[in-house]
Amino acid sequence: MSDFALWPVLAGAGAFFVVGALWYGVIFGTAWQKAAGMSDDQVQSGNMLVIFGLTFLFEILIAMVLWHLIARTNPAPHVVMMMSVGFAIGVMIPAVGIHYLYLRKSLAHFLIDSGHMITGMAAMGGVFLLFL
């Protein structure tokens, strides 16, 4: 298994992106918008091509790091999932939590975003299993 493989990385990032589209769209879109304190106009005012493009690039970076770790350690399938979800719980969520404390974000906002990270990373790990 190569330290870097294009298709697993793109597929893993794609899975995370799809989870985000569902999470912030049909599942928690209204609740997230309220928790973030954003009006409909504010949500629509951003350059969505830039926002979605950079989101996918960041997700590719996350996928590259996780794939590299998996490729170097050749773990069992259940460990791949533990690594994926564990990265969200042990690194991503605490990092965001620190920023949210200083930004005075609400617990609801934090929980919605944290749930996205856990679910997105689980989806990425599940996709990676298809390539092992």
TrEMBL record:
InterPro entries associated with the record: DUF1761
Entry superkingdom: Bacteria
Residue ranges crossing the lipid bilayer per the database entry: 6-27, 48-70, 82-103, 110-131
Cited Pfam families: DUF1761
Keywords noted in UniProt: Membrane, Transmembrane, Transmembrane helix
Designated name of the protein: DUF1761 domain-containing protein
Originating organism: Erythrobacter insulae
